[in-house]
Specification:
It is a multi-pass membrane protein. It is found in: Cell membrane. One of its GO terms (molecular function) is trace-amine receptor activity. InterPro entries: GPCR_Rhodpsn, GPCR_Rhodpsn_7TM, TAAR, TAAR_fam. With 335 residues, the chain is mainly α. It has two domains: 51-86 and 296-335, no CATH class; 90-293, Rhopdopsin 7-helix transmembrane proteins (Up-down Bundle), CATH 1.20.1070. The protein is built from twelve helices and no strands. The protein has helices at 3-12, 18-23, 47-77, 94-127, 132-135, 138-162, 170-176, 188-230, 237-275, 282-293, 295-306, 308-318. Helix 9 packs antiparallel against helix 11 (295-306). It is globular and about 80 Å long.
């Protein structure tokens, strides 16, 4: 690989990443594998930005894993709650690149379908609480969970495994194929399908949560009218349930908003790239990807901020009191 070949390849495709353009203006080009033919171009970073990027990414990964572990341990243990970016090169081989890309896509879609079914669960709980236990049974919940995992896995592995995502982009794929690279090209047709698979459940969530908030507002108005007529506070069971469901809906609504803020820029950029010749600079694309990944770290923070019982569960886990006998029966809802 040399400067002239790289320039010619990208210009012949009408596709010039500004970063590649900058690199190819120098007499020599850094490569992922210096002594190997067909190596990818390596993007150089100075020590300062490299340290900052590694710190941000490592912190995000630790926060994501630790935060979600706290959520899972809390739910599983306490009985009351049971119901490639910095280096620019890929050094893990082609097979793992394919596997990584498949699971990456699967996990991303699984997240949104879980949120979609949760919004449906909250909608039924708020709008029809009397029949809710008969509608969202354990078996129904199980089917929702299975679908949320199985459909994304089948879709993503089928799309990337068969190579349908790159149909019509053979020249671009050929130009991008090099030792030390892990880039997945998606054509216009499939990028639209990907966006629809993101947009449709997102639209469902927006509609359901909008209805939930309207209903919550109506309930609050009725309760306030009742209090003004009776001259005393209403502490009936129905009032307490309504208040709890509204709070749960508000918290999950914030989780959905965080999901949108994280993922929408990435999906919009994917569409723009597919129709305008992949014009997004590499570093911008990586930033959008990591913004999307950071969504996985947001939910534990949202739960910790809004739920006192979760903060208490975290305290018991971190201090080691969770290892005590009968700790699973601790009352998390008491002061």
């Amino acid at each position: 690989a040399n400067t002239g070949d790289i320039k010619h390849t990208f210009r012949s495709l009408g596709w010039e990443d500004p970063l590649v353009k900058e690199l190819t203006t120098h007499s020599s080009v850094l490569l992922c594998y210096e002594h190997l033919n067909g190596s990818c171009v390596k993007t150089p970073y100075s020590p300062g930005p490299r340290l900052i990027l590694y710190t941000v990414f490592i912190f995000g990964a630790v926060l994501t894993v630790f935060g979600n572990l706290l959520v899972m341990i809390s739910i599983l243990h306490f009985k009351q709650l049971t119901v490639r970016s910095v280096e620019s090169c890929w050094y893990f081989g082609e097979s793992y690149c394919q596997l990584h890309s498949c699971f990456n896509g699967s996990f991303c879609y699984a997240s949104i379908y879980h949120l979609c079914f949760i919004s449906l669960d909250r909608y039924i709980a708020v709008t029809d609480p009397l029949v809710y236990p008969t509608k969202f049974t354990v078996s129904v919940s199980g089917m929702c969970i299975v679908f949320s995992w199985l459909f994304p896995i089948i879709y993503t592995f089928s799309l990337l495994g068969t190579g349908a995502n790159a149909a019509g982009l053979e020249d671009l794929v050929s130009a991008l194929t090099c030792v030390g690279g892990c880039q997945i090209a998606v054509n216009q047709s499939w990028v639209l399908v990907n966006f629809l698979l993101f947009f449709i459940p997102t639209l469902v969530m927006i509609v359901l949560y909008s209805k939930i908030f309207l209903i919550a507002k109506q309930q609050a108005r009725k309760i306030e009218n009742l209090r003004s007529k009776t001259g005393r506070c209403s502490n009936s069971y129905q009032d307490r349930v309504a208040k709890r469901e509204r709070k749960a809906a508000r918290t999950l609504g914030i989780a959905v908003l965080a999901f949108l803020v994280s993922w929408l820029p990435y999906f919009l950029d994917s569409i723009i790239d597919a129709f305008l010749g992949f014009i997004t600079p590499t570093y911008v694309y990586e930033i959008l990807v990591w913004i999307a990944y950071y969504n996985s770290a947001m939910n534990p923070l949202i739960y910790a901020f809004f739920y006192p019982w979760f903060r208490k569960a975290i305290k018991l886990i971190v201090t080691g009191k969770v290892l005590r006998e009968n700790s699973s029966t601790v009352n998390l809802f008491s002061g």
